[in-house]
User: Fold these one by one.
Assistant:
Number 1:
Amino acid sequence: MPNYKLELEYDGTDYSGWQKQPGLQTVQGKLEEALAGVSTLESPIYAAGRTDAGVHARGQVVNFFAALKPSPGRLAAALNSFLPPDIAVRGCEEVGDGFNARRSALAREYVYYIYRGGYPSPFKRRYAYHFPGNLDTGAMEDALEVVIGTHDFAAFSRRDEGKHSVRKVFEAELRSVEDELCIRVKANAFVWMMMRMLCGSLLEVGRGRWTVADFMQVMEGEDNSLSGPALPPHGLFLERVFY
Amino acid sequence: MPNYKLELEYDGTDYSGWQKQPGLQTVQGKLEEALAGVSTLESPIYAAGRTDAGVHARGQVVNFFAALKPSPGRLAAALNSFLPPDIAVRGCEEVGDGFNARRSALAREYVYYIYRGGYPSPFKRRYAYHFPGNLDTGAMEDALEVVIGTHDFAAFSRRDEGKHSVRKVFEAELRSVEDELCIRVKANAFVWMMMRMLCGSLLEVGRGRWTVADFMQVMEGEDNSLSGPALPPHGLFLERVFY
């Protein structure tokens, strides 16, 4: 029975996130509906990142076992014809039985976009958080360096009770591209809300409300009531998953 | 009585075009509603380009006379607070009485975007026409050169009876940017549907259905029943207006 790996791109605006939930429109739900037109699912769909409501993906990776064995190219084309226009399969391959999109992933990369233009842009409103005020990007870069390495990210997460929140950040980078600020973080995994709370805390530094030392203290204090406010989901993209 | 010039950006997806029409949602209608919260309009709103349903603008220019005299910065901020998120004022200034956004314009620049990726992109679906097939872009460039200069564009328009369709094209350029093809045309003015029919005809050349000579013959024949099919509105942007 073939194990298919899909790379997905989706505009999360109109979805209650990746994970299937009764009565809600979810990306997983739409993918299962599209698959029903092509083959029979013989396993759950495993996903590398359980993106929250409103979060986008340019490179979500999922896998599943299917009863029929269409070629990867035909499967991708068939799924794209059944999927709504805000979800697309951008790659499909058959992988070994041992591959699991979630457990086999070595790292995930998320990017948060902050749009800094003076007026609210109609073309960025769905894909970037609008913050027109001044920002000390040098201080933000210094704070972002603090997160690289292995840390307990309890301060920047709404973790489930009893689950640990130690994660390893491989890379963290701030880039200015035209009137956007892109915060890119690559880590072995992310705790729930980590990117949005981390970016909200970085914004406190950028606005001069916190020093880099304050940021470090909040992170090390592991108390999420001291975090900066979580930024809204629409600026966040699951960019890529590494295997 | 002050004469205000506004530069507007809008996502045309959810509008029946610029021009106010009873019972329909239009950009002009939304702007008039927003203005009602700020001042009293003492003239019609004049626009440089009457964009059709679904067409976007990055640099539409309009003007109007108003009863009150807020500073341009305050007027822009107030309008942006009243306008829906898919319409934004990106610039505002007070201009002389003689300025008319439509009559004073020396040139308009439109850009048509063709997305050439192999799968339908969730992030481009509202802003580019998806054409995944092969295209001979060299031949398209040659055809595009033919339109530069003063011509009767009757073949590429659905003109109103009795109105003339001679226009002067100053610049016409094809550019490839990553997986997009951008067709940029700057002309003194455009006849109705001109960009979409011109780009649809260019696509016939790109697909090898027409030679450049065929394209030239259709254009010179001035018979719009021989034009390539008009491309859909969502790939078209009113980019800039020149004064």
Note: The helical segments of chain A are 27-36, 72-82, 137-146, 194-206, 212-221.
Number 2:
Amino acid sequence: MNKASEKNKSGGLRGVEAGSTAICTCGHEGRGLDYRGYSIAELAARGSFAETAHLLLKGELPKESELADFHLRLHSLRGAPAAVCAALENIPAKAHPMDMMRTACSVLGTVEPESENAAERAKGQDALAERLLAFFPGALGYWHRFVCDGKGPESGFISGEKEESVAAQLLRLITGKEPPPEHIRAMDVSLTLYAEHEFNASTFTARVVAATLSDMYSAVCAAIGALRGPLHGGANEAAMALVEQFATPEEARKGVGEMLDRREKIMGFGHAVYTIEDPRNRIIKEIARELSQNHPRGHLFAVSEAVEEMMRERKNLFPNLDFYSAAAYHFMGVPTPLFTPLFVVSRMSGWGAHILEQRTDNKLIRPGARYTGPSSRSFVSISER
Amino acid sequence: MNKASEKNKSGGLRGVEAGSTAICTCGHEGRGLDYRGYSIAELAARGSFAETAHLLLKGELPKESELADFHLRLHSLRGAPAAVCAALENIPAKAHPMDMMRTACSVLGTVEPESENAAERAKGQDALAERLLAFFPGALGYWHRFVCDGKGPESGFISGEKEESVAAQLLRLITGKEPPPEHIRAMDVSLTLYAEHEFNASTFTARVVAATLSDMYSAVCAAIGALRGPLHGGANEAAMALVEQFATPEEARKGVGEMLDRREKIMGFGHAVYTIEDPRNRIIKEIARELSQNHPRGHLFAVSEAVEEMMRERKNLFPNLDFYSAAAYHFMGVPTPLFTPLFVVSRMSGWGAHILEQRTDNKLIRPGARYTGPSSRSFVSISER
């Protein structure tokens, strides 16, 4: 039995190579994360989310003129047909925002379907990935404003200056006001950190769907559904629910200690792939620290650090990206239920890249199963059961 | 390297055990298919789709009183909230019916969400699987009637006698008239044949989504998206498009021969799991033969047989369930674009069983990948690219 099969003994296909990818490496030496060869630390510190999305979708970082074109294309693709606005307005205000995102994607697919013709599909698929990247911030913003204000933004989906970044667009629509530059930069880095992560559950879902040669909307709807789960994208919301229970670091240490005594699960720690640390944590933690400085609820940073200490002392677990993302988003004024939809906006860049890659050398993904059910038995007519 | 790893060399996780299941065995001795230990031949010949769905969801064939209760529960769960009807009416008439099914499921999830609380979810999940089983025939029928007649059925989703089978409900809504008993029986058998198939791509997709602890609607939306692909559920539509090109068996032999000369793919033949034959084929073929007898387009059966012969002679490939399903559905008066949505109605029973099973002993499904991209490289500022 080789190493991969040995690992898979524990289930969940852990360590089994389900395919190949040129998009990302993750978990090398227990803590590496590279997008197409570039380290996440450099991309976050010196690049932008738009550059990162271009890198993921096109394979290379853009030159200045390419980036300007990319911005203009994304801006021109922000609009939504009336049927999508109507569908968003039809969704109950109390609905889970991820159910809204999944529905928005599904409805757009009924209105602007991908061609069923292979040649036409190949011609249009790069533009469709950009379309979805440009669509989601507006969908999230439109619905959120509709729920908050009783109507969508006056400009509908198409709003903001032509050069406006996705980060600025999101914060403007979510908070309902012009965001400060430090929030825009923080959101932009966060989007870069969440953009891509190899064969994580949602991306793998998207690839399984794409491998049936289904359309891109179906693959993305499926990925949104996977990301929605608390063992995947939902973890940052759970982290927020945890830290906001505590008023002080002392309370946090005591509270988390008691939770651990009761063997309760603390979300936002450890990782299926990283064994030493999540390389994204130190970046988002620094952002959370900076944003906490002049924030009325800035104590949540110290509370988060206390939780981190307890988890290291008691469980020897490190925080993953989700943990300090919670405090960072909170300091930017993002309501907790919108944390995972922001993850959709960002991860669409990675999903798009993986769907396109899956199509280049496709094979149906169809594993086997170990049977544990009843052995062969004879049918008994209903009157004799 | 063990056998599973050896097989996976060819990609697509073929032969790799991605988990365990007590629901189905498929492909044993190259041609077996059992649902919870009962052979598909016996279930199709002596049982009904309702009994099969009960078997899949509850683990056992129902007694008479249990079956009566199951019918009543399914009938009581047929309704749809106004928001779902509005959403269906909002979908373009030209939309792909699978995009409609995916959207119908997604919208229902915004209106009747599954609880996020683990205990409440566990309490309600069996009923939710039945809800979705009962919902889809009405969704398909409502939208189809709305597109055909300019309005939904007067009774909305809730229509038909309390004892009406899903097969009868479907045919009544699709054809707009009371179906003859032989069509109802044929549809019922077809639903049994399509109900379950172990870790096929859509079911595996549903399990990957469920394994993040996401909700059942997300898992089912994802499965619909996977089933939509021509390498999965879309194959019966492709088979129909093929056979209806030919007026006679001779034309069919000639036409298929030319397609094979041009190395074109013929859908509905061979299988990822069966090596000798698809055990469902002889059942659906017999049904297609019977339905062809007095049908004005009954020649399509002889045409289908000619295609089958050519594929055996030239490629040594056997027809799978999808191939004769095409002719059978056609003879029942089902328009081709509704073939795959019927598959959704049926397979919901299997998906539901697998989602419930995945939750009983859950582990996140997160495989690895073989990296083929650029090696580590240094970030270059945009002005220097």
Note: The radius of gyration of chain A is 22 Å.
